[in-house]
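Lay summary. Proteins are chains of building blocks that fold into shapes, and those shapes determine what they do. In this project we predict the shape from the chain. Here is one chain we studied, written as its sequence of building blocks.
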Amino acid sequence: MPNTVNYATRFERDLMQKYTRELATAGLTTQNVRFIDSKTIKIPFISMDGYKDHSRNGGFNAGSVSNDNQIFTLAFDRDIEFFVDTMDVDESNQVLTAANVTNTFVTEKAIPETDAYRISKLYTDFVSVEIGGVQDVTVITSANILTTFDKFMQEMDEDEVPEDGRIMYITPAISTLLKSAINRTMSTGDTNLSRVITSLENVQLKKVPSGRMKSAYNFTTGFVPAVGADQINMLLVHPKSVIACDKHSYIRLWAEGTHTKGDGWLYQNRKYGDLFVVKNRKQGIKVNVTVVA
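And here is the predicted shape, written in a compact code that computers can read:
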């Protein structure tokens, strides 16, 4: 599809783009991932016996130790290319510059898609036959939301998931229910009512637009919810239960005369990465969904 530029209007210097939130899933990003080749991650898991009763007749009990590896292969490889004619740049009052094209694409396309992919992939891996995670389908209300949260937390505590670092992603609708369930506190005087909830029992809360919280997407062009996709309402996760990484990021602007596409600028963007649930740590994931009938 060719680029379209409005020649009838002289653009203002400030771009009037739609509002776009920051990357909500940045807290899941795994640091210092080591690859065994260009697209494969190998994570070792050690299994061993525990203590046995000691005999004072001498000697020690024999135990066994084994090392198993879990292999992850990156598969989410995305790219886009835009050609911007030299006259388009001039006649749009420099709106179509490299910085503006890059910023607009990253904020309006790349960031929302990354969240949508990570959340849906986490869900898909978690409920897969291999992982065997079980989703919660409780219909959330202001009367039971804290009960559901407490249930999730208690199960994680029993499974010895670390308390520090837990993150809960919630839709705006769930955020509203949560505020309704928690007592409001009035600050000094009668003018400021604090209703902002950024954490709950040391769990960081991240409000995510419901459009980025679906169980499945079609990624043919950008991303749209897949037909019949369920709505993820609450996703409580410890970052150590997943591996989320970007293996390669490529952004290049080719000036006119340095490519063969024509008289203009060529913008190219590629992002290669993925997210995986660590099977041995599935206990660090709890999810509530609304199932589409």
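What the prediction tells us: The CA atoms of residues 171 and 208 lie 5 Å apart.
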